[in-house]
Write a structure and sequence with these properties.
This protein has 365 residues and is of the alpha+beta class. The protein contains twelve helices and 16 strands. The strands form three sheets. The protein has a seven-stranded antiparallel β-sheet. The protein has a five-stranded parallel β-sheet with strand order 3-2-1-4-5. The chain has a four-stranded antiparallel β-sheet with strand order 6-9-7-8, with helices on both faces. The radius of gyration is 21 Å and the shape is globular.
């Protein structure tokens, strides 16, 4: 493939900077440009050039990004947050460059967690039992319907990422108080929320690239601890502090059924979250459609195939020769902390440090 110029949106943010690192470590010959609406975030960008654009919710966003594409001869846009995925999927036909995204109908279903839930339930795919809220009285009805599902219940926003507005509660009053806080302090409404059964089991993240209905490559990992989890009310988030690659055939089977449920001919990135119920059955909890996971290094820098590279090559219609598209190199760990680059290490290295013994001598002064 000849040298290409690509634009990664959200540059300067953790997820897009991780993606750009992965692309720079690939065999691709690229000019990597970035964009963001925030001047402070732009200053952190690791792209070759970074441009300030309006927010994707502003009327001038599409015209501004089209002008940038024409001025800088950009060959491919990679939107890397939900809002820009939705906007560019809707307006893709207006661009002269490549935009490698699922159909807008699929994006809209997956970005609304309750619409996604309804689609998966109708197709018999394991998913946590959930109920939408229209008013505060619906909280009591949801608790009645979920009373045999355990002692904890999950409250979350229908739209958004990063576990925003999400926590587990034990009582109706706690659910009411939590939603009321988000309503009074953050401007959300009760009808922005759902209540579902709480899934106490293992926690998986999955990233995949598809081309015209065919799987190009996929990876999977398990979240073992959560980034700044102790500072969250729930103790949990979608962003792990420590994760490891795993291959779970039952979960993979569920994932492939779920993807085909929301899109007959998958195209672009399909990233999913799963969590196990009390019986250990993995349930789909979320689609991060069209974009890369925040933790994309564990999917790009392990196994035989860099998923970021596979995405770009597929976007330019290059046939990827992948022997096994389920490209999971097990026992690779992702280690993350504030103000440090993500680290990838094999289990043997982790174990070596764990098994070190520290012997101290008492010094008498």
């Amino acid at each position: 493939m000849s040298k290409k110029t690509i634009l990664v949106t959200g540059a300067g943010g953790g997820g897009s900077n991780n993606l750009i690192r992965s692309l720079k470590k690939s065999s691709l010959d690229l000019n990597i440009y970035g964009s963001n609406m925030d001047g402070y975030v732009i200053a952190k960008s690791n792209a070759d050039k970074t441009f300030k654009l309006p927010a994707s919710t502003e009327p001038g966003y599409i015209d501004s990004i089209k002008q940038l594409v024409n001025k800088e001869s950009i060959d491919l846009i990679i939107p890397n947050n939900d809002r820009e995925v939705n906007s560019l999927a809707e307006h893709r036909d207006e661009f002269v460059c490549k935009i490698f995204l699922p159909p807008i109908e699929t994006v809209q279903i997956c970005q609304d967690k309750y619409k996604m839930y309804q689609r998966l339930v109708n197709d018999g795919i394991p998913v946590a039992e959930s109920y939408p809220l229209e008013c505060y009285e619906d909280i009591e009805n949801a608790f009645i319907k979920l009373e045999d599902k355990g002692e904890r219940f999950w409250v979350r926003l229908r739209k958004g990422s990063g576990s925003r507005g999400a926590t587990w509660v034990k009582t109706k009053d706690q659910a009411r108080s939590w939603i009321s806080l988000w309503e009074n302090l953050r401007g959300y409404s009760v009808n922005n929320f759902t209540i579902s059964e709480f899934l106490p089991g293992r926690d998986y993240a999955f990233q995949s690239v598809w081309k015209n209905g065919e799987l190009v490559v996929c990876k999977m990992c398990e979240r073992l601890s959560y980034f700044m989890g102790s500072n969250r009310l729930s103790g949990m988030s979608s962003t792990p502090e420590v994760a490891r690659t795993v291959r779970d055939e039952q979960a993979l089977n569920t994932i492939f059924k779920a993807i085909k449920s929301v899109c007959n001919k998958p195209h672009g990135n399909f990233c999913l979250d799963l969590k196990g119920n009390k019986d250990g059955i993995m349930n789909i909890t979320e689609f991060n459609i069209g974009r890369f996971c925040m933790i994309t290094p564990i999917f790009d820098l392990t196994g035989k195939v860099n998923t970021a590279e596979a995405y770009v090559r597929s976007a330019f219609d290059e046939i990827m020769k992948v022997k096994d598209p389920i490209d999971i190199e097990e026992d690779m760990y992702l280690l993350r902390d504030l103000d440090t680059e993500p680290t990838i290490a094999h289990k043997s290295i982790i174990d070596a440090y764990k098994n070190q013994e520290f012997k101290s001598e008492i010094c008498n002064i």
